[in-house]
Amino acid sequence: MNTDPRAALAALIAALERHYEAAAASHGDDDPALDAATDGLTTAFDAYDDALFEAYDIATPLIVFDGDDEDDDDDFDDFDDLDDDEDDDEDEDDDYEEDGEDDQER
């Protein structure tokens, strides 16, 4: 593809602007102008991500979710598992702090 990452970034910024304008003027989810701007934004992002990777072997930390895919909810289940693990870690920290306070009082 050999696209210049700087040019792809400029196209992505322009696509973000068009998407914002379409969203601000939108009258609902079924707005064809918003759909077109969303498609353009997705295409511009993919081109930027590819150009950045080809030029520098670096990818963006972003993922484009396809709204037509029903499996997207499964992707978020992984994040729910992470939240549960973090809560468990916080509980362990609380237990440690309580033990530490008891030791200081003695």
From TrEMBL:
Region (Disordered): 64-106
Composition bias, Acidic residues: 66-106
Name listed for the protein in its UniProt record: DNA primase
Organism: Brachybacterium phenoliresistens
